[in-house]
Amino acid sequence: MAAVTAPEYPEKLDAAVLKVAGVVVLGAIMSILDITVVNVALPTFQTVFGSVDDPIAYSHVAWTVTAYTLALATVIPMTGWAADRFGTKRLYLIAIGLFTAGSVLCAAASSIDMLIAFRVAQGLGGGMLMPLGMTIMTRAAGPKRMGRLMAVLGVPMLLGPILGPILGGWLIDHASWHWIFLINAPIGVVAFVYAMVVLPSDSPEPSESFDFLGMLLLSPGLALFLFGVSSLPEKQGDFGAPRVWVSMLVGVLLMAAFVWHAFRPEHPLLDLRLFKNRNLTVSTITMFLFAGAFFGGLLLVPTYFQQVRGESTLDAGLLIAPQGIGAMLTMPIAGALVDRFPVGRIVPFGLVLIAIGMFGLTQIEADTSYTVLIGLLFVMGLGMGATMMPLFTTALKTLTHHEVARGSTLLNITQQIASSVGVAIISVMLTNQLQNAPLAQPAIAAQQDPAIAAQIGGPAGVAQGLAQAAEAFANTYWLAFGLVMLTFVPVFFLPRKREETHLLDDQGVPPVVVH
Question: Of 487, 497, 483, which Cα lies nearest the Cα of 344?
């Protein structure tokens, strides 16, 4: 019987591997753009599915973001199991098909609740594209070429937060909101055919079992809890309303049951046993607070530009681009520094920048200089780029080789859940603030319908209402700023001296000391 030898990979990125990378980049572009493209559309959804003088509550339309990120979090841990069971090529084609079909359904939605439901379907497809793409690229390139290939994949990851809001704004202004979803249809068809032709077939190799019970406890539990929180504005902040407290209570009970269950199966949905690793625990807590504050707070910025400053959707997308540019500048620098310095000496600088930017947003008014606002967003972007990658790195490098996949899943899901929680809570805060400002909503509506201006005292009433609206945004940013400041507590416990990496422990290689 012939001995099985490891496959040999050429040193350079040859045509075959670049074709595979092209498939993965197409999938990444669709998935990443759709995380950010909807952000600028929320004010449009408020009036399209409501009306100018009676818009749908901001906390309600924010579920178009929350539902998508919750779906991403749900499907991430299932992807590895499903890839083994059905094969990576087949599952990748299913993911593209589900994402594309979900996009078309979103464009056909006739109510906000229908759109939210279709965003879940879209998110289930989109959540599989990135982890599957990484698996496909690793197999095609081999370990020695992954760095160069990751640089290729990094382009859409870095450009997505910049181009997403701009593309979304342009499509809404020059076509209609439907096209922020319909644009995925031709890209999806091309990606599907391209993947069918280029990706090599692989045989399914069923391995470990999947924790379906864990998924049935965690995902509905989190969704019900956030649904209860987001119902507060409609119930005037009354925690005693059954829709609020019953949803939150059932959600908490399901999540508690999940925690109890997670220590029982051999392969749980989320391996909470990994929290015995101090670095992973501290990094996860830091990631949760940081992502909730940053992504929740960032969601409000395009809405402020559109509703308070009267900017078009495209201009709002262009105005928030500096945040993405800032992140693009510092992310590669932070990635290089984390190999040389302890992460506890890098992340605090990034967090300080985010805190400076967030504090500046607590001071915004109806006529704050655009130079100041753009500067604040750029500073926050610099901070985000210097925070995210080091947190991921420090969390994973003290795990053993066989723990890395589970640790990476845990961190990715933490980020998605934190984003969902941050968006839900901060959008509820903004909705409550606007409800407590009697002239704010009429003044916002008056910018689109001049007849409403006469009802609130003409230009003077509109100016007063917009000042109230700006104050509502500023007050909401105090919550986001408070979460950023709270993040400094776990950051204090991040490693500040050289760590031992254990990635090769279970391969018979002694630990390597790294900075």
Answer: 497
